Amino acid sequence: MTTRTGNALAAQPERSLRVEHLVKAYQPGKPVLNDISFEVRGQNSVAIIGPSGTGKSTLIRCVNKLIPPTSGAVFVSGENISRLSGRALRHARRKIGMVFQEFNLVERLTVMENVLCGRLGYVSVWQAWRRTYPQDDIDRAFALLESIGLADFVHQRADSLSGGQRQRVGIARAIMQEPHVLLADEPTSSLDPKTSVEIMEVLVQLSEVHRIPLIINIHDVELARRFTSRIIGLSQGGIVFDGPPAELSNDHLKTIYGGEAWLQ
Ligand SMILES: Nc1ncnc2c1ncn2[C@@H]1O[C@H](COP(=O)(O)OP(=O)(O)OP(=O)(O)O)[C@@H](O)[C@H]1O
């Protein structure tokens, strides 16, 4: 799956996400995330695991600046996006691709139109309004869809697709954005086990081919172990494990999730 984009990327500096001493408190004095620091570079994939309510989605929302961190900084390919606002923030957001649990497609648009939405940040307001995209974008979108088995569906409306097909479209849209980091928030939670495996394969493969660091919030520890090169375990708003899947032991899982009966 080598693409023109992939070849061009080989000449570019490595893409990266760096989170430094991130703190988020929705209520003063009660931090949900407490001093989170990590860095992901190149084509590496990281799974963020942890119990419900431990702050995984909050972390994703702080990284893409849907919510402001209380303190700390987020660097995307070296650019500190923490203090940006207005046009500069909109520009920086193009560097952050998102894949959602519920896909977030525009239901009445076709597969091709949804994927081209990934280019909205790069075209003029007039082009965006008329949804007229450069031929190069259309060619790349088609090649991308072909590479993930959706060539026969380009003109089909999003609302006629299965969950797995929708998530492929969501991933293709994010890749079309040519992001410097790809954030996936529970991308398999709405899918059956077989489709979940296929979606993880597509996500990890595309992030590798396009050399985009990938961060996946995921509840399924076995999927995290199988597909990502690194696991970060959160508990009570702090990092309690950060390492390769092979090093994640039952003791670590007890620390992350608490208890142990569920492990048997
Ligand atoms: N907008 C908000 N205002 C106040 N508290 C919030 C807000 N969003 C989340 N929280 C709280 O922050 C904590 C972390 O929530 P978050 O959604 O980040 O956890 P999570 O690890 O992603 O959970 P899950 O795995 O269930 O999705 C929870 O206690 C939640 O109630």
From TrEMBL:
Any GO MF annotation of the entry: ABC-type phosphonate transporter activity
First and last residue of the signal peptide: none
Pfam hit, one: ABC_tran
Listed CDD domains: ABC_PhnC_transporter
PROSITE patterns: ABC_TRANSPORTER_1, ABC_TRANSPORTER_2
ABC transporter domain sequence ranges: 17-261
Keywords from the named record: ATP-binding, Cell membrane, Membrane, Nucleotide-binding, Translocase, Transport
Superkingdom per UniProt: Bacteria
GO CC annotation, single: membrane
SMART domains membership: AAA
Gene3D superfamilies xref list: P-loop containing nucleotide triphosphate hydrolases
NCBIfam families: ABC_phnC (TIGR02315)
Record-given protein name: Phosphonate transport system ATP-binding protein
Species of the source: Desulfofustis glycolicus DSM 9705
Organism ancestry: Bacteria, Pseudomonadati, Thermodesulfobacteriota, Desulfobulbia, Desulfobulbales
